[in-house]
Amino acid sequence: MTTMVETMDYDEVVERFDPVLGLEVHVELSTATKMFCGCATTFGAEPNTQVCPTCLGLPGSLPVMNGAAVESAIRIGLALNCQIAPWCRFARKNYFYPDMPKNFQTSQYDEPIAFDGWMDLELPDGETVRVGIERAHMEEDTGKSLHVGGATGRIHGASHSLLDYNRAGVPLIEIVTKPIEGVGARAPEVARAYVTALRDLLRALDVSDVRMDQGSLRCDANVSLRERGVSEFGTRTETKNVNSLRSVERAVRYEMTRQAAVLAGGGEVVQETRHFHEADGSTSPGRVKETAEDYRYFPEPDLVPIAPSEEWIERLRGTLPEKPAERRKRIQQDWQLSDLELRDLLNAGAVEVIASTVDAGATPDEARSWWVSYLAQQANTRGVELAELPISPAQVARVIALVNSGELTNSLAKQVVDGVLAGEGDPDDVVAARGLAVVSDDSALNAAVDEALAAQPDVADKIRGGKVQAAGAIVGAVMKATNNQADAKRVRELILERCS
Amino acid sequence: MSDVTRLTAAELAEKIHTRELTAEQVTQAHLDRIGAVDDFVHTFLHVDTEGALAAARAVDAELDEGRAPRSPLAGVPLALKDVLTTDGVPTTCGSRILEGWVPPYDATVTRRLREAGVVILGKTNMDEFAMGSSTENSAFGPTHNPWDHARVPGGSGGGSSASLAAFEAPLAIGTDTGGSIRQPGAVTGTVGVKPTYGGVSRYGLVAFSSSLDQAGPCARTVLDAALLHEVIGGHDPMDSTSIDAPLPPIVEAARRGASADLSGVRVGVVSEFAGEGYQAGVQRSFEAAVDVLRSLGAEVVEVSCPHFVYALPAYYLINPSECSSNLARFDAMRYGLRVGESGDSSAEDVMRATREAGFGAEVKRRIMLGTFALSSGYYDAYYGQAQKVRTLVTRDFDAAFDKADVLVSPTTPTTAFKIGERVDDPMAMYRADLCTVPANLAGNAAISVPSGLSDEDGLPVGLQVMAPALADDRLYRVGAAYEVARDRASGGSLVYRVPELRESGA
Ligand SMILES: [Zn+2]
Questions:
Q1: Residues B491/B268, Cβ–Cβ less than 8 Å
Q2: Tell me, which fold does domain A442-498 have in CATH?
Q3: B334 Cβ under 8 Å from any chain A Cβ
Q4: For A455, which of A408, B135, B212, B504 is 20 to 30 Å away at the CA?
Q5: Which helix (H) or strand (E) holds B40?
Q6: By the CB < 8 Å criterion, does B296 face chain A?
Q7: Do residues B395 and B265 touch, judged by C-beta distance below 8 A?
Q8: Which chain A residues touch B347 with a CB distance below 8 Å?
């Protein structure tokens, strides 16, 4: 279906057209409870176990605002250099959909809690771009539909659908940029850099898990083209739920080449929602709506207005993390990095994960060596950013701690990391489940040493004869026999003791 | 009819607490009465015999152990409007779309009643989702007015008020969005109070129009209403719009009012509530009531609230708008009725078919009105304008309360009309709320107290007393004083003049 779509060569696109971007990012807050009820928000729980009358929209139930979510929203607004509304309300966005229990979403409409801000991004070559922030507003997430029996997993063609309301009512912040203009050929790169910088900022604020793979950070990319030199905007498309940083860049780039081909062919870009396809990097039109949606917004009568006091806002301002630029300067000093080393780490997307690993107890060198070598390989193989790997900095710090305490060897540690990446749980769970602890029991090791020496009597003789370097073969055999769970240094000591 | 069912809630409580009667005897007497007359009046949609007797026995056990009563109303039975959720007991809101739904949770009002040891007899009939002024819009058939079987008991809470006049219960809970407690109170000769908005929790009250809905007490005397108000009222963290302040001293005000001295109280007569559309007998009853208030020492002044004439049209934009959104959740996906399911029907098909089959005509009318009023391009002209009127009505009240401590009017322009008389004329039906909607729009408190029988048709008339928000106590003081004077003049409580009802099977 997508192969028939014509695209224009990218160099030609940027020669003839000027792209305008608008990025809408939905962030799930990591509050303990939902936006309007006391239900837990844990990701991955059994379906419909984190629900109550309010988030199920049962008749008679009422919402009560989560103060922690409002606090997060204000901190995000402040970190994005926004104004904080002295008075604002929620509204109801009315439309029917089975995964929305009330058939309206409680959201902010024309009274966002934060508006008119900006964020500076640094591109890989060091150039800085300022992106304007239109608004950041609060809303509740919907439930999830699982469509069973269709070929595509979409509702079309499915025999039935299953509904999970665990996510219904989870607090979301939607952050909308002002139109990003004048970035020309760098538009895809800027889009990616924006989402990356936003993700890092949200992580530093500690308000969200910001996991694109789990949907706690979701990006919709609006793209339009206009002829160079023209000031009014072209017709835009909105590409939904682009689920990785790389995809953000690819989706913007694809839409630019597709729209350029349409325009160059004398056609008109259709204003529509499009879906991004991870496999080939293309987009395709979403469901065509016969009529324009009319959400019939009106102020939510079940909630009272939010009127954050000046003192509260200032107190929250005091809790903001360092600004990214200052933070980098400090990290460079603390970690004793050259400018080039820092830039490499930044471009590898490693600075924040290393910093978080250090915060969780590792030394900068230990953290760095894991993230830029073994974990970088894993990210590369999977085609994701370091931060998108399904292992957290805290988990990496735990692995490092296990190595330092002698409970894991370096090679065992890698197996533990593999286990975490495979979704087997925390490092300690993987150690227990896979039985990966170091064999530190000397009698067990001695037995293995004796066995290896007996199996290779000629080598044993050489060692006894003073050819210490021959011990390597026995060490290898012992390590093999213990599934690499022995400490090789200790094995070597035991072999030499036995042969002396 | 046993004498027990003729007693007031305060009298019953006293007899139960002094062990002259058991709560179980009292409950059984009312269940027997329901069994005898409810086929005739049809005030109940569901009678919870087992639950009521169990609750009564629990109260008896505590009292027999010598423990203090859980509340001044412990052991007294009550009829609950079927719009408040009851854990384990069906809640239909008078609608097919909720037929068979058993909520998994109690409304805050329900919970407070249970905690106070009030015995919930069952759930009362109502206009579907509280939309109506006659209880004819119930999907389960109309309720009949105990004063005249051919007439409506008012609405939407006709079941609750009629159950009091039929002596099936001494207390009831209603909800009032535009008059649904007060207007049924007026036309059944009983007392009904719409508390200050936010004074009684809405948690578990199935929403019709969230910014207007308010649950409140219904009783045969002002003191009984006050006792009930204190049980159900007060701040609830589950309702964000609930007022976080102590209730005013309501019962104290009712007791003080019983001394029938209103010297120093300024009573404002709203001049807009008279004239065309007001039944002459209602008007005369109202004027006589004002004379009584004056005779009790009140200073009567005339006040003008010029924007009250716009209150009804504004109300009929705001309530359908909120209703269209609140009732969207009834879509067959999670609970309630589900029709139109076949092999190839989509979720949308099932939603459409269920809503078509499950909602009655009046509910559909309001959903359509509200959907239209909120549509982009019309929002400002309708919903937006109505909100402006709401502000103006509130200002009218503020100005009037500068001149008067309470305002008075007839509760509703006519006495009970005949069943079927207004079903094809929604505008005539809506006019029943003419005098009651301003208090809902402004969120202040109001009571309807029986003011006698209309001289032309012998049917009950109500006197409405309105007080500023948070000053619910004034309603009770003035209402109780008026009640004492009226009973003194007419030789006893009006409600005992209700005709003997036809009993079935007895
Ligand atoms: Zn919940």
A1: no
A2: Arc Repressor Mutant, subunit A (1.10.10)
A3: yes
A4: A408
A5: helix B23-41
A6: no
A7: no
A8: 98, 155, 161
CB pairs under 8 A between A and B: 102
Beta-bridge partner residues of A22: A222
Clarify whether B81 is annotated catalytic: yes
Model pLDDT for residues A426-436, shown as the tens digit of each residue: 999 998 888 87
For residue B136, what are its two tokens? 């004819």
Residue tagged active-site, from B15, B71, B81, B134: B81
What is the bridge-based pairing of β-strands A114-122 and A83-84?
antiparallel
- CB-nearest to A60 from B204, B237, B376 is B204
> Residues of B numbered 358-377 whose beta carbons fall under 8 angstroms of chain A's beta carbons: which are they?
371, 374-376
Taking an 8 Å cut-off on Cβ atoms, the answer to whether B237 and A64 are in contact is yes
Distances (CA, A) of B14 to A166, B21, B22, B26, B119: 49, 9, 11, 12, 15
The SS3 assignment for A467 reads coil
Q: Where in chain A is the domain with CATH 1.10.10?
A: 442-498
State residue A496's pLDDT score. Answer: 83
CATH homologous superfamily for B3-308+390-495?
Amidase signature (AS) domain (3.90.1300.10)
Whether residue A196 contacts residue A245, with contact meaning beta carbons closer than 8 Å, is answered with: yes
Question: Domain residues of chain B, as ranges?
Answer: 3-308+390-495
Percent of chain A with pLDDT over 90: 62
Mean pLDDT per segment of 10 residues, for chain B of length 506 residues? 89 98 98 97 98 98 97 98 98 97 98 98 98 97 98 98 98 98 98 98 98 98 98 98 96 97 97 92 97 98 96 97 98 94 86 97 97 93 96 98 98 97 89 96 98 96 98 98 95 88 72
User: What six digits make up the tokens of B141?
Assistant: 């058939």
Q: Quick one: pLDDT at residue A159?
A: 77
Peptide bond into B242 cis (omega under 30): no
Residue B433 has what DSSP assignment?
A: G
Confidence (pTM) = 0.87
Which residues are bridge partners to B216 per DSSP?
A: B174
Q: Which residues in B lie closer than 8 A to residue A53 (C-beta atoms)? A: 103-105
Query: CB distance from B210 to chain A under 8 Å?
Result: yes
Q: Where are the alpha helices (DSSP H) in B131-234?
A: 158-165, 182-188, 222-232
Please give the single-letter amino acid code of residue B185. Answer: G
Q: What are the backbone dihedrals phi and psi of residue B174, each rounded to the nearest 5 degrees, phi first?
A: -125, 175
Partners of A238 in the β-ladder: A222, A273
Q: Is A374 helix (H, G, I), strand (E, B) or coil?
A: helix
Please name the residues between 58 and 97 in chain A that touch chain B, using a CB distance below 8 Å. 58-65, 92, 94, 96
Backbone angles phi, psi at B124, to 5 degrees: -100, 155
CB atoms within 10 A of CB A321: 14
Nearest to B288 by CA among B452, B71, B98: B452
pLDDT of residue A1: 43
Q: Calculate how close chain B gets to A286, using CA atoms only, in Å.
A: 18
